[in-house]
Amino acid sequence: MSDRLTLANAIVDAGIERAKAERMASVIIDVIHDSVATKADISTVRGELKTEIATLRGEMAAMKGELKADIAGVGAKVELIEHRLLTRLGGLMIVVGGVLFAALHYWPPAH
Hints:
mainly alpha
């Protein structure tokens, strides 16, 4: 009620008649009354947000663990591919060396 009276007095001070000022104050207060959050509203939303944040933190921690496992799996696959490539490259070098040796062995000597 004091909000209405304070607003009505401010409107009267601005030069508007008392009756009109009181009606304007009542209308303004009624319009904003449903749009204004109370301390209880804010407290409720705050509690809900804290719960949601805690849930998100838990989900992020779980995802972090999964990501580490995925990265470890990728690392193992890279090591396997590296081993295969080195094995094939070593085999290729032996074959090329053998072919070169055979070619030089059968190459006619220069006179």
